[in-house]
Amino acid sequence: MTLSTKSPTSSRASPAKKVLTTHAKKPSAGSKPPGRPRKTSPGSTSGSPATRTATALSATPSSTQLAAPSPSRPPSRSSAPPPSPLSAARQELAHRVLARRRLLTFTQKINPRYLPGWVHEDICRRLERFSREVEEGKSPRLMLLVPPRHGKSELASRMFPPWHLGRCPDHEFIACSYNVSLAMSFSRKVKEVIQDPVYEAIFDTRLHPDFQAAEEWAVKDHRGGYVAAGVGGGITGKGAHVLSIDDPIKNAEEAQSADLREKLWEWYTSTAYTRLAPGGGVLIIQTWWHDDDLAGKIQNAMKADNEADQFEIIKYPAIAEHDEYLDPETDLIVDAPTEAAPSLTPLRLKGEALHPARYDLRRLLQIKKTLPAQWWSALYQQNPVPDEGVYFTKDMFRRAGPPRKDDCYVSIAFDFAISEKQQNDYTVGTVTLLDSDDMLHFVDRVRFKSADADFICKAIVNLCKKWHNPSIQLGVEDGQIYRALSAPLKREMARQRVYPSLQLLKPITDKQARARTLQGRMQQGMVAAWNAIMVADRQPPKKQQSRPMKSWKDRLEGAGTGTHMAA
Q1: Same-domain check for residues 311 and 401
Q2: Rounded to an integer, what distance in angstroms lies between the CA atom of residue 224 and that of residue 173?
Q3: How many structural domains is the chain composed of?
Q4: pTM score > 0.85 for this model?
Q5: Which of 317, 333, 433, 537 has CB atoms 3.0–4.6 Å from 408's, for a disulfide?
């Protein structure tokens, strides 16, 4: 919904109507001063947040209500009287009371320049409930999955700890991040908030003068305190009413390491989790890097065992994949009203950005174009793809006819799968052209199931003959299969007088890593496929319909253009 601040009235004032100016005469003796605008009752405005916002905007003075001052007289300052000291004191006290109850109000009190969106309002509301349930000893479990640089740490790791400790100064707080340096940085920021005069006016919580180290500090005259720790670090002997874990994964390298993911899980289950006090809560707020990282393992445990910790899991995709509504009954973000919940609170429409004031849709689409599809799906959409999942889809290829082969580098590669068994994979050969603009074109391919060496060699040489030019290279993986085919392949080349430059390829990384290196190029629109190839892919030969075609990932790996394989 697009909100307009323009008044519905005409932009040109009627001559018969008087125009209110900022230099109005002083009221005569005995006249009543202008009264304050009538307040609207909370229940008088119904509908969505957008509707309420539009109603509020329509209540502001329009262009026809306020006219420019006359040039013959200098404009005077607003004649509205300042609030009385008593009124100002009452407003300030009301603000302080609200800041004790509302995390977002508290955040804006500490940082008046903080401009939240609906996502921050939702996060604050959930953190407030989490805090109340910890106070009541209900052992809450909350997981918030948020894209990078969308303000999650400002709320969860800088503002929430001092706000919770202000309400519950006897509670112990353990805050963990991917390393101890970041954890202590959060600790120092929390201390700065508690030492802020604004905070001191809201809460009675103070730092203990003798225990103020960055890694651990205590609350004065209370049993509460704060411990900062890196993931994997020792926190033995410490207790926690709140165990907070903010971004346990540092980067892609850690996310892709099965050993590090397993160490993280072991640390969480054997060390961090055991520090919880009875009724204590676990808060995890992170970007979801991998389907098998801490967030993934917890969700898998929930699915496998109903007795496992059941987390409230809220995902915030950077770009909405469907219309999003808040279900007041379940407090979940859903994609559409249901018969059980016909009236829902609208949040955003499909395709809208999560927080446009920080990252608008244009910027997010630029990021999407730059990142490999796997990382966009994981980091920004909170939907990581398993390592064995689909890396390439047809819509990632540009559609184009083949360029002139004589104007390109020609690369032919074969991925062998020789077996007499029917269920074996296909042997696949692909032809790739690299043009002067660094565009890759997949222009041809053959695939078959055969263990006959002469048949395989003829198929290789025929494809080389079809696309032959002075730059042609033939890449085959160095291994037992090639060594078995080497002699008959050379005989067939001599017979047909076709001599491509032969490259023996050795993989230097695993399949997943080689596949990901091509994703960035594809996201940038630098990989094209001849339409005939795309159509043929959907229509395998009739005799081979019992077996689905090989995935695009495996086929492209078989292409072996030299980008992902080392000679």
Answers
A1: no
A2: 8
A3: 2
A4: no
A5: 433
